[in-house]
Amino acid sequence: MSVELSVHGLTKVHAGQSVAALDSLDLTVSPGSCTAILGPSGSGKSTALRLIAGLDSPTAGTVRIDGLEVNGVAAENRGVGMVFQRPMLFPHMSVLDNIGFAYRAAGESRKHSREHAREYLDLVHLGDIGDRAVSGVSGGQAQRVALARSLAGSPRVLLLDEPFSALDPVLRTEMHDLVRELRSTLDQTLLLVTHDQQEAAVLADSLAVLIDGRLEHHSDIATAYTRPSTLAVSRLMGGMNEIEGQWDGVGMHRSQLGELEVNGVDLPAGPAVLLLRHELITLDDNGIRGVVSGLRPTGFRSIADVTVGSLTVKVELAAGSSVRVGDAVGLRIPGGARFVVR
Q1: How far apart, in Å, do the first and last CA atoms of the chain sit?
Q2: Helix pair 139-152, 169-185: axis angle to 10 deg
């Protein structure tokens, strides 16, 4: 049965530092769900995981698993597994014995430990390399072994600290597919640390954004993209369009694009930035008029710079688009593509 993970006021100030690496974090991960912590380097992401795992002690705040505070519980007794960016396998052991280490440490025989380990090796689709030395496996295989080793401890909570960031794109996609498969098989609560918003969108149910040690946003994935709490969160989520203008405090933003209605914004009247998701803007002859001033390929698709007055609006074009620099176009900006922040 999966459990809830929650932290309240979790704070860490490292020795000799005056600024908190993690500042009063409140976060709850529902049983069986996956939350991704997204943030730039130095934002406190890995610090949060270390405190939850019991690898470091908080300056203040509590960690609760299944409603019970675990601050004073040793790391090995918390029921928490962790996978790091590097596999950190034991070089003197075989693949199978790496996975069965937890059982051996608990006093089980080598035979029984290996029997249990084979089950988890099969889970990560590496059943045929159990007897191989870890020095003879690829980077992607090593990370699968590390994942299997963490799962073999039957953790109630699994922490993933950027475990796929060192893999090439193909292997990273394979690992994403594996984690999604394991989530449908195993009943565990997951907390993932990443600096990649696309990875978060692929794996997680909800997203928590840390910036300078503080939680700036927490929501489902779609809301994080289209209704970010701050300008910094928008940029982390890949937002490209920031339009300076005036907010009337009721529901209208005014800028060189004209008057655009924006719903669900709770800000007083004054200067404000209109955010427009480039993926949701489409070309429409009846839309806001502009001229294509630049094109940047992004694989099959491309990003068009559309100049409107002195503004430039970035638009993601569909694959095979025939739009060329110099074309006069119209922009249709649906309500779901708009949000306003200070």
Answers
A1: 43
A2: 20
**What DSSP state is assigned to residue 133?**
B
Instruction: For residue 339, give both structure tokens.
Output: 């949000």
Contacts of residue 138, Cβ cutoff 8 Å, sequence gap at least 6 = none
Give SS3 for 222. Answer: helix
pTM of the model: 0.93
Cα–Cα distance, 310 to 257 (Å, whole number) = 10
Structural domains of the chain, with CATH:
5-226 (3.40.50.300), 239-341 (2.40.50.140)
Tokens read off for 155: 């953790």
CA 121 to chain centre: 26
User: Identity (one letter) of the amino acid at 69?
Assistant: E
CB 87 within 8 A of CB 145: yes
* pLDDT beyond 90 at 66: yes
CA 60 from centroid of its chain's CA atoms: 25
| Residues 17-59 pLDDT 10s | 999 999 999 999 999 999 999 999 999 999 999 999 999 999 9
- Paired with 219 in beta bridges are 207
d(CA 314, CA 277): 9
Tokens of 164: 């796929």
- 38 vs 207: CA distance, rounded Å: 7
What residue type is assigned to position 181 of the chain? E
Are the C-beta atoms of residues 96 and 120 closer than 8 Å to each other?
no
> Exposure of 316 by Cβ count < 10 A (0-12 exposed, 13-18 middle, 19+ buried)?
middle
Q: Does an H or E element contain 308, and which?
A: strand 301-308
Handedness of CA 61, 64, 67, 73 (dihedral sign): negative
Numbers of helices and strands, H then E, in the chain: 9, 19
Complete DSSP assignment for 51-120:
HHHTSS--SEEEEEETTEE-TTS-GGGTTEEEE-SS----TTSBHHHHHTHHHHHTT--HHHHHHHHHHH
